[in-house]
Write a structure and sequence with these properties.
Elements (H helix, E strand, L loop, with lengths): L2 E7 L5 H10 L3 E4 H8 L7 H8 L12 H10 L1 H28 L4 E5 L3 H4 L8 E6 L2 H8 L7 H10 L3 H6 L3 E4 L4 H21 L1
Parallel strand pairs: 1-3, 1-4, 2-3, 4-5
Helix pairs in contact: 1-10, 2-5, 3-5, 4-5
The protein binds adenosine-5'-diphosphate.
The site of adenosine-5'-diphosphate (ADP) has 14 residues, from α1 and α10.
């Protein structure tokens, strides 16, 4: 079985940028955000259960989940959030397991599961061998996500408020990348981590 790394970090910390660099070196990536997106596309596995639970208002005319509607609903209503999660989480886990099996069949030396809320959700911590946290200052997070289309600074602050704080995340980590420098520095971090993870696999 491949070594499984859980990659997490706050919004804008550089998770995607680091994942990309590990994949370029041969890691297999299981991206839970991409899976969540896939299952809520038109015809995705979550669509009919979501329609049954929330009614047709939850589904856009094109057959995809109406993300804006769902976000507003889940943000203001705990029961709605719990229902949403009870539908979506098991489907995500099933797909994650399928992708881990596929990675085990491949030549990838280890698997990186990217989970933005790994520390907050708890369930993933038991599934991974090591937790890798990408960390940077909140000011840097905000500066990075401000460039994202459709995301205002106020929204970025609201997301930061909802996510675990840096200390809590760092306390859950076995491996930490401080991503406050340049992208070249991040390349160096990725290279070191890659060697480290390949070494763990070799001695396991
Ligand atoms: P996350 O996936 O954690 O939300 P991203 O990897 O998408 O964050 O990074 C957010 C933005 O910041 C992206 O545009 C990315 O290219 C940029 N970025 C990440 N790390 C650095 C860095 N060390 N230097 C400059 N830009 C960076």
């Amino acid at each position: 079985m491949a070594l499984i790394i859980g990659l997490t970090g706050g919004i804008g910390s550089g998770k995607s940028a680091l994942a990309e660099r590990l994949v370029a070196r041969g890691a297999a990536l299981v991206d839970t955000d991409a899976i969540a997106h896939d299952i809520t596309r038109p015809g995705g596995a979550a669509i009919e259960p979501l329609r049954a639970a929330f009614g047709s208002a939850a589904i856009s005319a094109d057959g995809a989940l109406d993300r804006g509607w769902m976000r507003r609903r889940a943000f203001t209503n705990r029961a709605a959030k719990a229902t949403l999660e009870s539908i979506v989480h098991p489907l995500i886990r099933t797909e994650v397991e399928r992708q881990i099996l596929a990675a085990n069949e491949s030549s990838a030396p280890y698997v990186v599961i990217a989970v933005p809320l790994l520390v907050e959700s708890g369930i993933w911590r038991e599934r991974v061998d090591r937790v890798l946290v990408v960390d940077c200052s909140e000011a840097t997070q905000i500066a990075r996500v401000r460039e994202r289309p459709g995301l205002t600074e106020a929204m970025a602050h609201a997301i930061l408020e909802m996510q675990a704080g840096r200390d809590e995340r760092l306390a859950a980590a076995q491996d930490i990348v401080f991503n406050e420098g340049s992208l070249t520095d991040l390349d160096d971090h990725a290279q070191r981590l890659h060697h480290f993870y390949c070494g763990i696999r070799a001695t396991a």
